[in-house]
Design brief:
Elements lengths: L1 H24 L35 H5 L1 E2 L2 E2 L9 H14 L1 H4 L8 H4 L11 H5 L2 H10 L13 H19 L10 H18 L3
Antiparallel strand pairs: 1-2
Helix pairs in contact: 3-8, 7-8
Bound molecules: heme C (HEC).
Heme C (HEC) binds next to helix 4, helix 7 and helix 8.
């Protein structure tokens, strides 16, 4: 039995060899080899114009550029879920807060150490800016700020944009949005704040 198995293995090995030999001998070019046939002398050919590698066809312009028909999109082209916001928060704190600060006021540690101070996210202009603009700034940079296209993948960029909107809302949430049963808490904290500021005035 053992003999028969080894004979079979040997037979298969020879058969395999034969097959491999055919492939070896066929005329073909190898990468970086020279070619007599093509006028540029290279075996490797340039890609046909418009070639796209599998899985990299970025045909959803809103998702990949933040623009649609040349205008910045006004809606985030992903489902905005609690998970996306959570992701946005952690990515914002890693990549943006060192300059923009945790609340987006533009007072991060790098700025405190002398880097150009960015505009606060809470000015009217940036509160009214469409979300596509923020995506574009992260993707392409803006003035003194370099781009984060290499560090932050597309979906994370949108997560950051969603979180950035949350930050903006956090500074301008209307009192009417506070649920009725928690209004008293709001009043109390506002009074505490007033008292704190009044006490601080003498300094
Ligand atoms: C190294 C510091 C630094 C980091 C990190 C940084 N920024 Fe900025 N950002 C700046 C500065 C400085 C400006 C203003 C540039 C100028 O005016 O030349 C700016 C401008 C911007 C603007 C444009 C504001 C306007 O006035 O139109 C946006 C939006 C923005 N940053 C978002 C982000 C986001 C989102 C991240 C994280 C992915 C980030 N930035 C990371 C420094 C930084």
């Amino acid at each position: 039995m053992i003999l028969r198995v080894s004979a079979l293995v040997a037979l298969l090995a020879v058969a395999g060899l034969g097959c491999r030999q055919d492939m070896h001998d066929q005329p073909k070019y190898k990468p970086y080899r020279q070619s007599e046939f093509f006028t540029d002398g290279r075996a490797m050919r340039p890609l046909v114009a418009g070639t796209v590698a599998q899985g990299t066809l970025r045909d959803d312009t809103a998702l990949f550029t933040g623009k649609s028909g040349g205008d910045f999109v006004t809606e985030i082209p992903l489902a905005v879920t609690a998970d996306l916001l959570e992701r946005g928060r952690s990515e914002f704190q890693v990549f943006c807060s060192p300059c923009h600060g945790r609340t987006g006021k533009g007072d991060g540690m790098i700025v405190q150490r002398g880097f150009k101070r960015p505009t606060s996210y809470h000015v009217d202009r940036l509160r009214q800016t469409p979300v596509g603009y923020f995506f574009d700034v992260i993707t392409n940079g803006y003035g003194a700020m370099s781009d984060y296209a290499a560090q932050v993948p597309v979906e994370d960029r949108w997560a950051i944009v969603a979180y950035l909107r949350t930050l903006q809302l956090s500074q301008y949430a209307p009192a009417a949005d506070v649920p009725a049963d928690r209004k008293a808490e709001l009043e109390a904290s506002l009074q505490a704040l007033d008292a704190h500021e009044a006490a601080g005035e003498g300094h």
